[in-house]
């Protein structure tokens, strides 16, 4: 799937070639000489070999839907011994995430422009230790339920790419989506812990907020959160 981007993004991202990995063509298909992707792919994607991209072996945490990068940049700064990958379909949005990563001088973050529907194309079985899903699109219409990132179809994909005992940390301000997700976790026989329907008034410690979370929690919107383990 080719993802549209704004004209200014290509040039703007050239200075972030050590952080941003762009893949719009099918994986496994060689890039053509002279492609604009060559400049940006300073760290070429390697399914099953992401430790080589980071230059070290460390636990791999992946955020599905990185947005402007407030969450992943702060989390990576607090956890320098973890390798982080942020996936975002909107390339122009990811530009701002790259800025934050550069400003903090982080070497343990890579940002990937990609469609999450094809997540199994970019990670080998068992390669990922933890997934973060923060404030994903709730797709409120019933006929769109399969597009929700916590639908059983996605959970079955996550089961493949996650290491044994791997986890999902999930947050949303959408109560119907949260309740739907809990049902999906149960249907997949996953272990759910630390469930809260009002995160900021709970006893949970160490929460890192996204831009979206700061905005809506500041307006008094309750935040739902849970941790899910794949046995």
UniProtKB/TrEMBL annotation:
It catalyses: guanosine(46) in tRNA + S-adenosyl-L-methionine = N(7)-methylguanosine(46) in tRNA + S-adenosyl-L-homocysteine. CDD domains: AdoMet_MTases. Its EC number is 2.1.1.33. One of its GO terms (cellular component) is tRNA methyltransferase complex. Pfam families: Methyltransf_4 (PF02390). S-adenosyl-L-methionine binds at residues 63, 88, 115, 137. The keyword Metal-binding does not apply. HAMAP family: tRNA_methyltr_TrmB. This is tRNA (guanine-N(7)-)-methyltransferase. It comes from Pelosinus fermentans JBW45. The gene is trmB.
